[in-house]
Structure formats: C-alpha cells, structure tokens
Specification:
Elements (H helix, E strand, L loop, with lengths): L13 E5 L1 H6 L12 E4 L7 H13 L3 E7 L6 H15 L3 E5 L12 H6 L2 H4 L4 E6 L9 H16 L4 E9 L2 H14 L5 E6 L4 H11 L2 H10 L3 H5 L5 H13 L5 E7 L4 H11 L14 H5 L1
Parallel strand pairs: 1-2, 1-8, 2-3, 3-4, 4-5, 5-6, 6-7, 7-8
C-alpha cells in the first residue's frame, strides 16, 4: 500500500452511510457528499427490498458508489438472497457490498457473513468489492476465538474469489485500543485493508445511546468518563480526537493496513459531510487502493 490512501490534504479518506429512506426521500443530502464517494446503504429491517434497490440506483445515477448491507439473517431463503443481489446488480448497477450477519426476529438458513460468502453468489453475480465486518472491541455474545476464526475463514474465501476484500469496523472512541487491535489482527495473519469506523460529530447523549445499542462497552466507558457533567454530556463530540491519532499512526507506519475511515453519521448526514469537507477527508480518487484482491492476499 502507498500514501494514495490519503486525500490531497493529507487526511485519511472517508466513506459514510445512509438509510434507504434518506437516499430516496431526502436526496438533497447527497448534495453535501462528493461524487465517487462510497455510500453504504443500511438494512435495519425496516425498509422494503424495493426501497433498498431504489436507493442503490439513486446513488449509482448520481455517480456515487453504493455499498448495500447484505444482512444474512434477514433472508428467509437462499433464493431470497440471490434475488436481492440480482436486483441490486442488474437494476441498480451495484458492484460493492458489505456482508454482515445482521439481526432478525426469525433467522433464515443463512446465519453469518461467512455463509453468504460460501454461496459463491457474490462472484457469480458480478460483485467486485466485498467489505466484511471488524470488531476492535469484540462483539456481544461472540467469543474472541470465534471472531478470529471467522476472520481467517474470510481470508480463505477471499483466495477463492475474484472480488477485492476489505474490513470495515464498528465505531469506537478509543484510538489507542484500535491501534492495539490493528497489531493483533496483523499477528493473526490478517491482510485485509482496514476501514476504521468513526462516529461523526454528534451530541454526547446521542453517542451514549448508539454505543449502548451496539455493545461498544469500552468506548461507552470512555464516553461516560468524559461526560461527567450535564454541560459536557450535552456538548458535541469532536471526531478528530479519534481520527487524528489514526493519521499519526499511518504517518509513522506507512505499511500499516489502516486504509480509510468509515463515518457513522449519528449527528446527521449533513453535519457529518460538512465536517469531512472541512477536514479534507473526502476522496475523489478511485477506491481500489483501499481494498485487497486475491493476488495481494496470497503474497
């Protein structure tokens, strides 16, 4: 990897995400995001397939790169999963996806992102870039050794795939902990480029809610320690306290697998986009240097 991961302003490049409803019904928000940006399309189980496909098509038509969430447990059958990918690729021009386990009241036969990858349908239906999830602080109800085995199984599957792979993480607030985790997964043999999840600017009270929901326990303690008074709890969170130490790491260790940031817009899409514009983290280049293909993994 090279310093092409940085924007011309010397900042880590960024992606962000929107709900299908936001993309379809609030298209004016896209005016704050530069074309070619990777925009993840969430799937929280509250949007129809038609809306998800429409959102992805809107992003494609506006010259963004849509990255729809593919939540394994939400598909009632393998056929339903195949139908979703087929519609996204053929109707919306999707080439990139995020494969996750997801949540569902009644899980279908596909219970993990590994199960999605093992179907071979991403390759068969023309997906070129596959993001998989990373958990710097672990994951609720999943043992560390299971997380490790799943990540390395994804490496094995990447060797069999024509797609490029990358790791995009849950958000957090402890850059020192993230740096330790980056070293840890490198020790496992992880070679996927890593896009570190960052919470966008938001009130501390908002972040507390999302951190509790996501099970980000260590970061939740970090926020609570900082928010010791009503005044500080209502004040805004500055994401640069998370991002700048990561940029320092990249400057000191240019061969790190740290490739990009992924910003969760908890304080609003517009507010997040304006912050990224101000700091120079929007990238106008091709994103291929932030993912890894099968030949690179094999080296």
């Amino acid at each position: 990897m090279t310093d092409t991961r940085l924007t011309p302003e010397g900042r880590l490049a960024a992606s962000t995400e929107m709900s299908p409803k936001q993309v379809v019904e609030k298209t004016e928000l896209l005016d704050f995001i530069p074309p070619k940006t990777r925009v993840y399309v969430t799937d929280l189980g509250n949007a129809s397939e038609d809306m998800i496909v429409s959102a992805a098509k809107t992003l494609t038509d506006r010259s963004f790169t849509p990255v729809p969430h593919m939540a394994a447990r939400r598909y009632p059958s393998l056929d339903a999963f195949q139908q979703r990918i087929t519609r996204l690729t053929q109707e919306a021009g999707v080439t990139d996806v995020l494969a996750i386990a997801g949540e569902a009241d009644k899980a279908g036969p596909l219970t993990s992102s590994v199960a999605l990858l093992e179907t071979g349908l991403f390759d068969k239906l023309g997906i070129k870039t596959i993001a998989v999830a990373g958990h710097p602080e672990g994951a609720p109800d999943i043992k560390p050794d299971v997380i490790k085995s799943f990540l390395m199984r994804k490496h094995e599957l990447a060797l069999e795939s024509d797609a490029r792979f990358l790791l995009v993480t849950q958000f957090g607030f402890d850059p020192a902990g993230v740096n330790i985790w980056l070293d840890e997964i490198a020790g496992w043999g992880n070679k996927f480029p890593v896009h570190i999840g960052v919470a966008g600017p938001a009130k501390m009270t908002t972040l507390l809610k999302f951190a509790a929901f996501a099970g980000v326990e260590n970061s939740l303690k970090f926020i609570k320690k900082r928010g010791g008074s009503v005044v500080s709890m209502l004040s805004g969170y500055d994401p640069d306290t998370m991002v700048e130490p990561l940029e320092t790491r990249l400057a000191a260790r240019p061969h790190s697998q740290l490739a990009q940031i992924h910003v969760y817009p908890f304080g609003g899409v517009q507010k997040t986009a304006e912050w990224l514009t101000q700091r120079g983290s929007w990238s106008f280049r091709s994103d291929t240097s932030s993912s890894l293909d099968v030949q690179e993994i094999a080296q």
